[in-house]
């Protein structure tokens, strides 16, 4: 598996979580790292983010179908205000956060097929 892709997906995930945590804490007050992790994993309000988390986990599995994983990443990371819950929220985040937009660009570069030689 392309280590650059995994690294850029992790950075994208980190950027999204950082922005979302700031918003959450602005509305509800400070949360410990453990409390926030519990929200990310268990609270249905955060279910929209789980497809990206699952994609990153799949990259670490043995015998992963790399072509299928790349196709899934390209499909998931297509911002679409009418798409899946993730795609809708992602489209909004891309417009709102330069950090998320930059991380998205890095992932798109990593997802490009290698140039033919």
Helix content: over 70%
Q: How many E strands?
A: 0
Strand content: under 5%
Query: Counting H and I runs of at least 4 residues, what is the number of helices?
Result: 6
Report the sheet with the most strands, covering strand number, pairing sense and barrel closure.
Answer: none
Q: How many domains? A: 1
N-to-C terminal Cα separation, in Å? Answer: 20 Å
Low-confidence stretches: none
- What are the secondary-structure elements, in order, as H or E? HHHHHH
Q: Compute the gyration radius: what is it?
A: 15 Å
Look at the helices and sheets and give the structural class: mainly alpha
The residue-averaged pLDDT reads 93
Please tell me what the overall shape is: globular
Keywords for this entry:
117 residues; single chain
